[in-house]
Design a protein that fits this description.
- With 93 residues, this protein is of the alpha+beta class.
- The protein has one domain.
- The chain has two helices and three strands; from the N terminus they run H-E-E-H-E.
- The longest helix has 13 residues, at 50-62.
- The protein starts with 7 loop residues before the first helix and ends in an 18-residue tail after the last strand.
- The model has no long low-confidence stretch (mean pLDDT 87).
C-alpha cells in the first residue's frame, strides 16, 4: 500500500477548485409556512459551479421541498501567487 503525500482536497485546490458554502432555504409540503435551511460546504469551480448544479438537480428529482432561495459564498483557497515549486530540498538528520 502506498502512502499519499497530498490530500485529495489539496489536489482539487491545485486544479482550480475553491471552497463553497451553500445555504438552501426551503419549504416542506407538510409545513408550508415554515422556512427551513440546509447548509453545506463543498469544493467547486467558479463561476460554473458544476457540483452545485449536480446537487440542485438531485434536489429537484428526489426532495419534496420547494426552494425559496440559495445563498452561495465561494473562496479560492490557493491562488497562482500563493503557489510556487520547490527546486531544492535538504534533508537534515
Amino acid at each position: 500500500m502506498t502512502q499519499r503525500l497530498v490530500t485529495r482536497e489539496f489536489e482539487l485546490q491545485l486544479e482550480g477548485y475553491g471552497l463553497s458554502l451553500v445555504e438552501v432555504h426551503y419549504f416542506m409540503p407538510d409545513h408550508p409556512s415554515l422556512l427551513q435551511q440546509f447548509s453545506f460546504q463543498q469544493y467547486d469551480v467558479a463561476p460554473r459551479y458544476p457540483a452545485l448544479h449536480h446537487f440542485l438537480d438531485h434536489w429537484r428529482r428526489e426532495i419534496e421541498a420547494t426552494i425559496q432561495s440559495i445563498r452561495l459564498a465561494h473562496q479560492q483557497l490557493i491562488g497562482p501567487n500563493e503557489w510556487r515549486t520547490v527546486d531544492r530540498e535538504w534533508l537534515i538528520n
